[in-house]
Amino acid sequence: MRELQVLGTFLPLLGLVVTFVIAYRMPPGTGRRLVLLIGPAATLALCMAFAEFIGANGNMLFIALLLMLWIFAFAYYPILVGYWAIRTARGHGGGQR
């Protein structure tokens, strides 16, 4: 159980790394957009679901990383949606290259 708590401490970082690696390897288009949209939200949901277990015994590193994930999400999603809106308005929205 201790190993899971240690692994869970770095869950916010691992989730974001896995999300961006998967998105990087996917071809441009809707699939990549879905990964970039759902990945960070799924990571945040998973962290919140297990926060009581992972944050037990004063695990302040997890709490700090979770706070950084929340701050990232508040900045990331408006920038992502704005970027997609501008690309779509300019006619680059289909993922063509």
The tally of strands reads 0
The average pLDDT value, as a whole number, equals: 86
Oligomer: single chain
Report the biggest beta sheet as strand number plus sense, adding barrel if it closes. Answer: none
Cα separation of the termini: 47 Å
Which residue ranges are poorly predicted, with pLDDT under 50 across at least 5 consecutive positions? none
Using only CA atoms, what is the Rg? Answer: 16 Å
Number of helices: 5
Shape: elongated
What is the H/E string? HHHHH
Taken as a percent bin, the fraction of beta residues is: under 5%
Percent in helix: over 70%
Which structural class best describes the helix and strand composition? mainly alpha
List the helices and strands and how they pair.
Layout: H1 2-9, H2 11-25, H3 30-49, H4 51-54, H5 60-89
Helix pairs in contact: 2-3, 3-5
State the gist of this model:
The chain has 97 residues and is mostly helical.
